[in-house]
Amino acid sequence: MNVMALLDYLQEEVEQGSKVPLSAKCMVDREKCMDIINDIRQTLPNEIMEAESIRNEKNQILYDAEKEAENIIAEAEEKVRQMVDENNITQMAYQQAEEIITNAQTGAQEIRTSANEYVEDILADLETYIQRNLDIVRQNREQMKGR
Q: Which of 42, 45, 75, 79 lies at a 20 to 30 A Cα distance from 98?
């Protein structure tokens, strides 16, 4: 029997006790009440131990749940960190790609400019050479006419 049932049984015994006239007291079977109280004393430590065990079990479950929650949070934070790092890596890659493209475009423009200047120099030298030879040809023609 559990403690609550024993207490109910004791209450019932007291309620059924004979009333003492002109008072709020009653007469109960002393031996029966003492037996019930002894049963309560014997049952109580078991129930207290069970309650303690249940409380400890509850605390362990709460502790385990907290640890599990902390682990889940830590894993989630790590995943977020990885995603942020990957995003940063992607952004850095795009930035480097843009720098490479910009540098390539700048380099290509410099090569075009240098090539144009080189061709301009060669054409100017060619023009000078041709002009000089043309002048020589004209002089030779003039000399031929004058003879």
A: 79
The SS3 assignment for 19 reads strand
Q: How many CB atoms lie within 10 A of CB 33?
A: 15
What is the CB neighbour count within 10 angstroms for residue 16?
10
Rg of the chain in Å (alpha carbons): 55
Sign of CA dihedral 118, 122, 124, 125: positive
- Residue 17 three-state SS: coil
Distance from C-alpha of 4 to C-alpha of 15, rounded to nearest angstrom: 16
The domain spans of the chain are 3-115
For residue 42, count other CB atoms closer than 10 A to its CB. 12
**Spatial distance between the Cα atoms of 94 and 90, rounded to a whole number of angstroms:** 6
Q: What percent of the chain has pLDDT over 90?
A: 50
pTM of the model: 0.40
